[in-house]
Design goal:
Number of strands: 0
Structural class: mainly alpha
Number of helices: 5
Largest sheet: none
Order of helices and strands: HHHHH
Number of domains: 1
Distance between the termini: 13 Å
Amino acid sequence: MVKGFSRTQIALHWVVAVLIVFQLLFADSIKPAWRAVRNGGTASLSTMAWAHILGGILVLALVVWRLWLRQSRGVPDLPGGETGVMKMAALAGHWGLYAIMIGAAVTGLIAWYGAIPAMGEVHQMFQPLFYILIGVHVLAALYHHFILKDGLLNRMRQPQD
């Protein structure tokens, strides 16, 4: 059993979180360039549009690293006292976030570099899913911290190397 997350796992969690917030807040920066590509023209990329593309690539690379660490090092068990429903919700939420992070990055890259409008539409469909899952993730962490007081939130703040 793994006692807690490593420094690397914690750092990757927070770096990816910040990158995703950036991606969501500045998603509109790429829209003018995408419209040009979709209409058969050439794209003129602003700094923010380039940042969105590079941010997506970085999210994908870091999430793959996170998954590799999860597989090779493991993760701590869920806190005691959780019901079966809570455990299933936690697993579904975490794997849902991983799926959306990978899916959004891959569809964005395919849309952009393949100039495939259908992938661009799929890519945009991930945005509301991100908001929902991130909101549930944050609320669950706060619930554990302030209501259950089971130390779950501290696992993403205090490394156990």
